[in-house]
Write a structure and sequence with these properties.
Layout: E1 4-8, H1 16-23, H2 33-41, E2 51-53, E3 55-59, E4 65-69, E5 72-74, H3 85-93, E6 101-104, E7 117-118, H4 124-142, E8 146-150, H5 154-162, E9 166-176, H6 183-188, H7 192-206, E10 210-214, H8 221-238, H9 246-255, E11 260-267, E12 270-279, E13 283-291, H10 298-314, E14 318-320, E15 334-344, H11 347-375
Helix pairs in contact: 2-9, 7-10, 8-9
Length: 381
């Protein structure tokens, strides 16, 4: 079979049916047409914001799309959560041009998921190889510095390493469902001190509040208005410029409501805080959070404990609560590896980056092992 590879300057050019034929079988909400289209159509991930879509579509002899890859020409490294700013600074000080670069990832979403999507009945490895070669060829034809694939699943990461990309590992904190039927079952797996602490945190966070988990038709535009206010307040304080527009939340609310769990805290019917989660086939993915009122432990309640409750009720295997946050360990979220892979065209940059990553990998592994051994809240044995 021969293939044709096409570069698309927006996901709409491929279309929902063609894209989702490859994306839907993954069960990952973030590689769905609806999520990526919301990022682009809302003005959140667009060229003026440094995100120029260059999505790849792989076509068979009949012109049917048999594979896709989310791909962006990036004018900066913001909203990626895999940090290469030092590489960019060093290259530019040496007279090179690091930006634009090519990024295979989901905008603003540090969640592990497939990056090479194939339709049912096609060979995953064959499609992956064709899409990866297409991305590398695009780097060459555009004369740009590099290709970066962030948060791929481990088999993709290993395949890219074998293909010559530089492998990188980092750490996230993930809660795993060991067959718990209730939140108390989860607590029973913890040490006595941690059980007492979590129960106290939940009592204090919930006092005087009405906490609701909304999904599907229960989520209204009024809820999104409130949540956007939380998001903007937190984003202004933490990042200086929040990435997502109000229209983004309207779009995912309209097209993905059944794949969303919106946790909201109300005081006397007035919403004061919220946490946004997306529901996958096997996992609940925590994304944004915000609050307009300081309440002790409310962040832990909305983002971590309510997520665990929801995952147990839905029979989900894990909760992925996003990037960073060693404090998550005490709440049952243990260190887990996440991956990225990097192709750098110029040997003058590639070689020192390769040496840096060779030194970084054992340090990351040692840190993950030490945190698990020293900080785990679970009962020994």
């Amino acid at each position: 079979m021969s293939f044709t590879l096409q570069v698309n300057d927006g996901i709409a050019a491929i279309g929902r049916d063609a894209w989702d034929a490859s994306a839907t079988p993954t069960g990952d909400p973030f590689v769905s047409y609806d999520f990526l289209h919301a990022c682009e159509a809302s003005g959140s991930a667009v060229p003026s914001q440094g995100w120029a879509a260059r999505h790849l579509s792989l076509h068979d002899d009949d012109g049917a799309v048999i594979g896709v890859m989310p791909l962006y020409l990036k004018g900066h490294s913001q909203g990626e959560y895999v940090f290469d700013h030092n590489w960019a600074d060093a290259y530019q000080r040496a007279g090179g041009r690091y930006y634009p670069k090519l990024l295979g990832a989901v905008p603003f979403t540090p969640a592990t998921g497939p990056r090479f999507l194939h339709s049912p009945g096609t060979e995953a490895a064959t499609v992956r190889e064709a899409l990866l070669q297409g991305a590398l060829t695009l780097v060459e034809r555009l004369g740009i510095s590099s290709l970066h694939v962030n948060f791929p699943i481990e088999p993709e990461w290993r395949a890219m390493t074998q293909a010559g990309l530089l492998p990188r590992r980092d750490i996230q904190f993930i809660w795993r469902n060991e067959g718990y039927q209730t939140f108390d079952d989860f607590l029973a797996a913890l040490s006595s001190n941690r059980r007492k602490t979590i129960r106290r945190e939940r009592r204090e966070a919930q006092a005087g509040l009405d906490i609701r988990v909304l999904t599907g038709a229960d989520i209204t535009e009024a809820h999104w208005d409130a949540f956007f206010a939380f998001y903007m307040d937190t984003g202004d304080r933490k990042w200086g410029r929040p990435y997502l527009t109000r229209d983004f939340f309207a779009r995912v609310g309209a097209s993905m409501a059944d794949r969303i769990a919106l946790v909201m805290a109300f005081r006397d019917e007035t919403p004061i805080a919220g946490a946004l989660n997306f529901i996958g086939r096997e996992a609940l993915y925590g994304r944004q959070w915000g609050a307009l009122e300081e309440v002790p432990f409310l962040h832990f309640e909305l983002c971590y404990y309510q997520a665990i409750d929801f995952a147990i009720a839905r029979g989900l295997a894990r909760v992925e609560a996003g990037a960073q946050g060693e404090h998550k360990i005490a709440r049952g979220y243990l260190p887990s590896p996440v991956y990225s892979a990097h192709w750098i065209a110029d040997p003058a940059l590639r070689d020192p980056v390769a040496r840096y990553l060779d030194n970084e990998r054992p340090a990351v592994e040692a840190e993950m092992d030490a945190m698990t051994a020293d900080l785990s809240p679970y009962r020994k044995g």
